[in-house]
C-alpha cells in the first residue's frame, strides 16, 4: 500500500486471506501454464477458461479483502472496504471517528459501525463493525472486520488517538 499504514486492524493481521489469495493466484497461473504447454490435451476450453477466471477473480477479491480496514497516510484517512471502492478523506476535511448504529434496509439496527466524520458532516462508513453475537468475534462476516465489544471500543479510541498524533505530524 506504499504511503498508507493500516491502523485497524494492525498491519500484520488478516494475512491468512492474503496467503490464500496467493495460493489461488498460483493455481490460476498453473492452469494457464498447462493450457499454454499442452493446448491439445484440454478437454473443454469452456471449463478450463472458467476455472482460470474463477481462481484469478477470487484471488483478486481475497487479496483486496486482506487489505480491508482504516489506513492513515500523508493525504488523509483511507477507508478501504473489501466490497466497494476505497475512499480518501483528506486531513483538512477530517473531524473524528465515531460509532454509529449499523443500518440495513428493513432491519433493526444491531451492533455499530465506525464512521469517519467530515467537516461537512457526512459520514463515511468503515469496514469496522461491532459483533452482535459471541461467535462473530475476530471473523469476517460479509468480509467486514468484525470486533468484539471491547475490541471495538479499543479500536475506536485507538483510531482517534492515532489520528490526532498523525494529523499533528502531517
Descriptive account of the structure:
This protein is elongated. The strands form 2 sheets. A 5-stranded mixed β-sheet has the order 5-6-7-9-8, covered by helices on one side. Helix 1 (15-37) packs antiparallel against helix 2 (45-65). The protein is an alpha+beta fold and 170 residues long. It has 3 helices and 9 strands; from the N terminus they run E-H-H-E-E-E-E-E-E-E-E-H. The longest helix has 23 residues, at 15-37.
How does the SSE layout of this entry go?
Blueprint: E1 5-8, H1 15-37, H2 45-65, E2 69-73, E3 76-80, E4 87-90, E5 94-101, E6 112-118, E7 123-130, E8 140-141, E9 144-147, H3 149-169
Parallel strand pairs: 7-9
Antiparallel strand pairs: 1-2, 2-3, 3-4, 5-6, 6-7, 8-9
In short:
With 170 residues, this protein is α+β, with helices and mostly antiparallel strands. Helices cover 38% and strands 28% of the residues.
Helix content: 25-40%
Q: Return the average pLDDT rounded to an integer.
A: 81
Q: How many strands, what sense, and barrel or not for the largest sheet? A: 5 strands, mixed
As laid out across the biggest beta sheet, the strand order is: 5-6-7-9-8
Task: Kindly provide the radius of gyration, computed on alpha-carbon positions and rounded to a whole number of angstroms.
Answer: 20 Å
What is the count of helical runs?
3
How much of the sequence lies in strands comes to 25-35%
How many DSSP-defined strands?
Answer: 9
Structural classification: alpha+beta
- H-E string: EHHEEEEEEEEH
Q: Report how far apart the termini are.
A: 18 Å
* Gross morphology: elongated
Which parts are unreliable, with pLDDT below 50 for 5 consecutive residues or more? none
Amino acid at each position: 500500500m506504499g504511503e498508507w499504514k493500516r491502523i485497524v486492524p494492525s498491519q500484520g493481521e488478516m494475512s491468512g486471506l492474503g496467503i490464500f489469495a496467493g495460493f489461488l493466484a498460483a493455481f490460476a497461473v498453473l492452469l494457464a501454464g498447462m493450457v499454454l504447454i499442452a493446448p491439445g490435451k484440454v478437454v473443454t476450453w469452456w471449463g478450463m477458461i472458467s476455472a482460470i477466471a474463477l481462481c484469478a477473480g477470487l484471488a483478486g477479491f481475497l487479496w483486496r479483502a486482506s487489505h480491508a480496514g482504516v489506513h492513515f497516510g500523508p493525504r488523509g484517512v483511507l477507508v478501504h472496504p473489501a466490497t466497494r471502492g476505497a475512499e480518501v478523506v483528506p486531513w483538512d476535511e477530517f473531524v473524528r471517528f465515531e460509532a454509529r448504529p449499523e443500518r440495513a434496509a428493513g432491519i433493526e439496527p444491531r451492533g455499530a459501525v465506525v464512521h469517519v466524520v467530515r467537516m461537512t458532516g457526512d459520514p463515511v462508513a468503515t469496514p469496522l463493525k461491532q459483533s452482535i453475537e459471541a461467535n462473530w468475534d475476530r471473523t469476517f462476516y460479509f468480509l467486514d472486520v468484525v470486533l468484539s465489544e471491547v475490541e471495538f471500543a479499543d479500536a475506536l479510541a485507538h483510531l482517534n488517538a492515532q489520528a490526532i498524533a498523525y494529523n499533528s505530524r502531517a
